[in-house]
Amino acid sequence: LLKTCSLHGISTFSFQTWLSQARQSKDYALPNSSWSQGMMDLYSRFLEMCKDGTWKRIPSYSNSIDHIPGKAFWCVCKERKETRLFPRNMDTEGVGFEYAMFLNPSEKRMVCLFQPGPYLEGHPGFAHGGSTATIIDSTIGGCAIFVAGRVMTANLSINYRNPIPLGSVVLVDSKVDQVEGRKVFLSCQVRSIDGQTLHAEATALFIRLDSTKSLQQQMSSQ
Ligand SMILES: CCCCCCCC/C=C\CCCCCCCC(=O)SCCNC(=O)CCNC(=O)[C@H](O)C(C)(C)COP(=O)(O)OP(=O)(O)OC[C@H]1O[C@@H](n2cnc3c(N)ncnc32)[C@H](O)[C@@H]1OP(=O)(O)O
Fold first, then answer.
1. Position 196 in a domain
2. What are the residue boundaries of the Thioesterase domain, all occurrences included (predicted)?
3. What are phi and psi of 71, to 5 degrees?
């Protein structure tokens, strides 16, 4: 199982190895009792589409390091710190960000099923725009990481079209539009489950930080 390769002096693990390592941490992208019927139905729909390999469910951990393949080699700090990935910062289920991501590698597309909880309030009854930006950045970021490896957000531009009611379920749908050298251009739409309401749309530029292999390259070399 442990298949390593060396690229530019940096060891990277295979996708399978990363998955098995990551399995040791709690996966938050699994259904819990706070998920509404709408969230459960959408989750089941995507899980079904995972069966033929078109889509892949992306596990989610409270520590960002756990998302990185070969984390022991990538981590600049030797000790594991008591930090949390921002959207996984609350202990109580359902009050903050409830979400699950699915990746379509061939379409370079990442979708996120998002149910904003009551502690994400902005205007009464609606999700704060910053929480919408966070889930967009995380979804687009996950997509960019898959395609390009280590990246950082350089630009994120969001048009808010319709407020998102707290407790509702929306689909955050992102894709890579173009890669030019270190620059990864992506776009994203946030829609209601029935697709009728466009809540937000965004474009983003991510910059690749180094030349290590992307997860997509690792998966295709299996
Ligand atoms: C199957 C598995 C899938 C895996 C999925 C994993 C699980 C997914 C789950 C969960 C994922 C969670 C994901 C979280 C994501 C969160 C991301 C964030 O929030 S990041 C924090 C906010 N961002 C910052 O703090 C950056 C601050 N800025 C910087 O550090 C630098 O500016 C940086 C690195 C972005 C670029 O700096 P330089 O020095 O490396 O590069 P220079 O030379 O400045 O730029 C390179 C090129 O890009 C252009 N550029 C840079 N910034 C630009 C900008 N804002 N607009 C336009 N162009 C820009 C430049 O003009 C240059 O272009 P020319 O090569 O000359 O053509």
1. yes
2. 125-197
3. -55, -35
Give residue 148's domain range. 37-220
Residue 134 domain flag: yes
Q: What is the pTM of this model?
A: 0.87
Q: What is the pLDDT of residues 103-133, one digit of tens each?
A: 999 999 999 999 999 999 999 999 999 999 9
Q: Which amino acids bring their CB within 6 angstroms of ligand 1? A: 56, 58, 67, 103, 137-138, 141-142, 145-146, 152-155, 182-183, 205, 207, 215
27 inside domain:
no
Count of domains observed in the chain = 1
Structure ipTM over 0.90, yes or no:
yes
Residue nearest to atom 27 of ligand 1 (CA): 154
Within-domain flag for 128:
yes
Give the other-Cβ count within 10 Å of 155's Cβ: 11
Look up residue 133 and give its amino acid: A
Residues classed as catalytic: 137
Return the CATH number at 102: 3.10.129.10
